[in-house]
Amino acid sequence: MVEYRIDRRSGVATYVQIVQQTKQALRLGLLEPGDKLPTAREVVEATAINPNTVLKAYRELEREGLVEARRGLGTFVRRTLGAHTADTPLRTELDDWARRARSAGLGREDVDAFFTAVLDEHFPKGDQ
């Protein structure tokens, strides 16, 4: 099950953070069709956010066809976004690289800058 982490200082709306984290879990294969999302109550208890915020995020995911609400049962994943699971050789290589970057004294913002620059080089804006 996915555990949402809310960054109140990010400037990103809370419901958008939930949508983004759910999509990331779908891309990484951490959530698969048929999996149940945490209930709004569970998310509220874990993150101390308004239940309407959770429901807004879930409605957005439902509007995009990624999940479906089943009355009395919960919200379930309908489809995935990723072609790869979290345990791929590429993931392992990236994990090794991040470990080396940290050992070399790079901070999260440094790594983010490097990674963003490489992504922008290989995946120009507008390429999906």
Let me know the number of strands.
2
Shape: globular
What letter string, H or E per element, gives the SSE order?
HHHEEHH
Helix share, percent:
40-55%
Return the average pLDDT rounded to an integer. 91
Main β sheet profile:
2 strands, antiparallel
Indicate the radius of gyration in whole angstroms.
Answer: 17 Å
Fraction of residues in β-strands: 5-15%
Low-pLDDT residue intervals, each spanning 5 or more residues: none
Spatial order of strands in the largest sheet: 1-2
How far from one another are the termini? 27 Å
Helix- and strand-based class? mainly alpha
Number of helices: 5
Structure explained in plain terms:
With 128 residues, the chain is mainly alpha-helical. Helix content is 51%, strand content 6%. It has helices at 14-27, 40-47, 51-63, 89-103, 108-122; strands at residues 67-70, 74-77. It has a two-stranded antiparallel ribbon. Strand 1 and strand 2 (74-77) form a beta hairpin. Helix 1 crosses helix 3 and helix 2 packs across helix 3. The two termini are 27 Å apart.
